[in-house]
């Protein structure tokens, strides 16, 4: 069997690398139009940082794993084609700010239809609105060149930072489709290393909707505990103690009950807004309003964090240096999509603060690009003032010590383990006094920092 995957991003690259590693008899080709990204996949400096990914890629690359820009050639040769391209939230037209932009999905389907011959299985790997497969099937069936297709839905359930482990030992693999023969062929691929009882099969529409629903439920838990964190700060309760108390209830469980500055990543907000748009489309206004509140609470948590910094620092951060520890949306990844740090930094520089950012995996170019995007409106415009603030009030440090030297405050944005092992006495001595710490991840030892002399403000703790 030959597999082609269109899209060499955070999902396509690691997923295909794992399939190639576990199935040496299958030739896997990952294609992308971005030459720079493909070059990175063919180098020792992969474009995606995930613990353990380097070893997986190195084992299979050159044996049965290929990264290429020859899209038509790979499609034509493949028996099974995965579509793993970006489906961002629309920024224009109908459904702007909510609906998924399916432009790249449609372009992939048309390209597959144009160059294919014989019979092929097309697998939706990207997160898609329910019933997208219907449109993909119509496009493929109109190829006019005699090719035939089966369409499957096989959504990913990877958590960035643990993607390799999630691929090796998934809770489940979900495959939706109409052709049992096509479903069985994809099942056989995964069954090379995943027990059959963890491979679930459904109809197409259930599979597509399950992905959106899973992310909505996870994000809902984060927003729920974050809502309680605000009440904890007002009443003197400790959100970590509350989370532990309710998490020991077997009906609730402990996962995704860690209060923070807010969730980020490519999926949660995008998928919930997509779900909201779908509900509105089908006239389910109350359902749409329910799920939209999850995103509203996440925005409120970020806004609340910024306001707490400003109010605590004597109601002004103008010309004050604030060290930002972490910029990725979570530890063990270089992904910054929808990271809370982006919006905190944007709001702080608009308050005329000087932010100095350190993240062990995120480049300065990536930081400035995401801040520019966050300051850009729906029409693609950015003010001259925001441009100047990004240029003059944002700098990047090589480590936390450099970022914190002379700073009035530290804001912890990402829960990198290394941040817990720093010499906090040295950091305290290098800062302006009083030295503030705003722990957006409840990562640091509060008692230890207070003994040194820091004034620490954490999420959900008064």
From TrEMBL:
Pathway: Nucleotide-sugar biosynthesis; UDP-alpha-D-glucuronate biosynthesis; UDP-alpha-D-glucuronate from UDP-alpha-D-glucose: step 1/1. The keyword Acetylation does not apply. It catalyses: UDP-alpha-D-glucose + 2 NAD(+) + H2O = UDP-alpha-D-glucuronate + 2 NADH + 3 H(+). Its EC number is 1.1.1.22. Gene3D superfamilies: Cytochrome c1, transmembrane anchor, C-terminal, NAD(P)-binding Rossmann-like Domain. Residues 323-446 form the UDP-glucose/GDP-mannose dehydrogenase C-terminal domain. Substrate binds at residues 156-160, 211-215, 251, 258-264, 329-330, 441. The keyword Isomerase does not apply. Catalyzes the conversion of UDP-glucose into UDP-glucuronate, one of the precursors of teichuronic acid. This is UDP-glucose 6-dehydrogenase. It comes from Rubripirellula amarantea. The gene is tuaD.
